Every structure is written in structure tokens, then in C-alpha cells.
Here is the input.
Amino acid sequence: MVENLFENKLKELEKTVRKLEEEELTLDQSKILYKQGIKLAKECNQLLEESEFEITELKKELEDKGLQD
Here is the structure.
């Protein structure tokens, strides 16, 4: 589901961090999980930035309509 995209990615990031913290991993496994975590963190950040932009635009639109009425 698109509306749960951020939440799903965040849960996956949390799982990745838990694995890195709790499991006995080889160096290669750790590197793979670390890269996966960085990728997920960037994707979450991008989704947050997009949402912030949308909210800002909606707020501007609402304020503009209020001024025109």
C-alpha cells in the first residue's frame, strides 16, 4: 500500500538496526545490513521531505483561498 510506504520502510529500518545491534554477524553481513540501513534511512528521509513539501503547498493554498474570500 502506498499510504503505508513510510511506515513499512521505517519498520524495515528498525529491524535492520536491531539485527546489527543484537546478532553475531560477520563483517560482510554487517556491511550488507549497514548499506541496507543507509538506503532505507535515505528513502524515509525523502518521503518525509516530500510530505513536508505537500503540506506546505496545501497550507499556502489554504491561506491564499482565505485571503481571496
Observations:
- The helical segments are 5-22, 27-68.
- Residues 27-68 form the longest helix (42 residues).
- Residues 2-68 form a domain with the Helix Hairpins fold (CATH 1.10.287).
- The two ends are 37 Å apart (CA to CA).
